[in-house]
Amino acid sequence: MADEGEDERLDRAFAALGDPVRRALIARLSRGDATVNELAEPFSITKQAVSRHIQVLEAAGLITRSRDGQRRPCHLDPAALAELTSWIDTYRLAVEQRHRRLDELLEAMKEDEG
Q1: Rounded alpha-carbon distances, angstroms, from residue 92 to 22, 76, 80, 97, 113
Q2: pLDDT in tens, 62-107
Q3: Three-state secondary structure call for residue 33
Q4: Sign of torsion, CA 44 58 72 30?
Q5: 81: phi > 0 → left, psi -120 to 50 → alpha, else beta; which?
Q6: CA nearest 54: which of 42, 68, 64?
Q7: Hey, which residues does 76 pair with through a beta bridge?
Q8: Range 13-18 contact pairs with CB under 8 angstroms and sequence separation of 24 or more
Q9: CATH of the domain at 54
Q10: What DSSP designation does 75 have?
Q11: What b/e string do you get for 43-82 counting C-beta neighbours within 10 Å, with b at 16 or more?
């Protein structure tokens, strides 16, 4: 069972990923670091709106920002994505195991009939 802090992080991360613009920003950052201007380029929304989406992703712990001279590139946090993947995998594996047991039972029933 997840602790309360972990639950809150997961809640924030999944809520942040509920928006298609934020998912697109994550997809873009998976290809490499980018500034707000670079991230805003493909969208028909203002840079301020993109900046707010970035703030949500940052508050959710999915991205970080650093300073590189005048640039403030955004970086995807692979550890945060790994935490989400791990949470999902826990349930995916449990469901797959149940399906395997059901398949085995159905196969045994076919053999008994045949």
Answers
A1: 24, 24, 18, 9, 32
A2: 999 999 888 899 999 999 999 999 999 988 888 888 888 888 888 8
A3: coil
A4: negative
A5: alpha
A6: 64
A7: 63
A8: 13/60, 13/61, 13/62, 13/80, 13/83, 13/84, 14/84, 15/60, 16/56, 16/57, 16/59, 16/60, 16/62, 17/60, 17/62, 17/84
A9: 1.10.10.10
A10: E
A11: eeeeeeebeebbebbeebbbbebeeeeeeebbebbeebee
What token pair was written down for 63? 């991205």
Q: How many residues does the chain have?
A: 114
Distance, in Å, from the CA atom of 81 to the CA atom of 62, rounded to the nearest integer, reads 7
Domain housing 49? 4-113
Question: For the chain, how many structural domains are there in total?
Answer: 1
- 59 Cβ contact partners less than 8 Å away, ≥ 6 residues apart: 12, 16
pTM of the model: 0.78
CA distance 14 to 82: 13
| The one-letter amino acid at 25 | L
